[in-house]
Amino acid sequence: MLNAAELQKGLAGFYGTDGYHKVTIFPRIVGTDGIVYLAKNAECFWLVDEIAIANHTSPKIRNNQRLQEIQFWTLTVKDRRGTLVCRADSDEAPVYRKSFDTDFPLPEIKIWVEAGGDPDGNLFKVMMLPSE
């Protein structure tokens, strides 16, 4: 696992993506190059899984039409205690919240999940860093 400074330096280099990658067991949720870098170098595939699972199991997410278009996720960590929240907009109250112990190296990370599709009409969700 990279330390916080190394991870932040690496994450700063992601603008756009060259492709979408399978990052969870859910076939309709993919990640960008930045998400793959984050998951590998912070050893946090569990984080992308938490977001994917919430997309499939939380009625507050599944039944909110705005959250089918875009989701704003934030993981904050203090004293090895993490809180993961999802919002429909940056200035709104969270629609999803989960707390847990973690060794995630950064005090905060933001992940956006956006609706996507391909020319054949296949719909999916894309996890990305805000800079992508």
Q: Which structural traits does this protein have?
A:
single chain; 132 residues; alpha+beta; 7 strands
- The portion of residues forming beta strands comes to 25-35%
Strands side by side in the biggest sheet:
1-2-7-6-3-4-5
In total, the number of strands is 7
**Biggest sheet character:** 7 strands, mixed
Order of helices and strands: HEEHHHHEEEEE
Rounded mean pLDDT score: 94
Helix content: 25-40%
Task: Describe the 3D structure.
This protein has 132 residues and is an alpha+beta fold. A hairpin with a 6-residue loop joins strand 1 (21-22) and strand 2 (29-31). The longest helix is centred in the middle third of the chain and has 13 residues, at 45-57. The relative contact order is 0.23. A seven-stranded mixed beta sheet has the order 1-2-7-6-3-4-5. The chain is globular and about 40 Å long. Helix 2 (33-41) packs across helix 3 (45-57). Helices cover 30% and strands 33% of the residues. The chain contains five helices and seven strands, in the order H-E-E-H-H-H-H-E-E-E-E-E.
Structure described in brief:
The protein is an alpha+beta fold and 132 residues long. It is built from 5 helices and 7 strands; from the N terminus they run H-E-E-H-H-H-H-E-E-E-E-E. Helix 2 (33-41) crosses helix 3 (45-57).
Itemize the secondary structure elements and their pairings:
Elements: H1 4-11, E1 21-22, E2 29-31, H2 33-41, H3 45-57, H4 59-62, H5 65-69, E3 70-78, E4 81-87, E5 96-101, E6 108-117, E7 123-128
Parallel strand pairs: 2-7
Antiparallel strand pairs: 1-2, 3-4, 3-6, 4-5, 6-7
Helix pairs in contact: 2-3
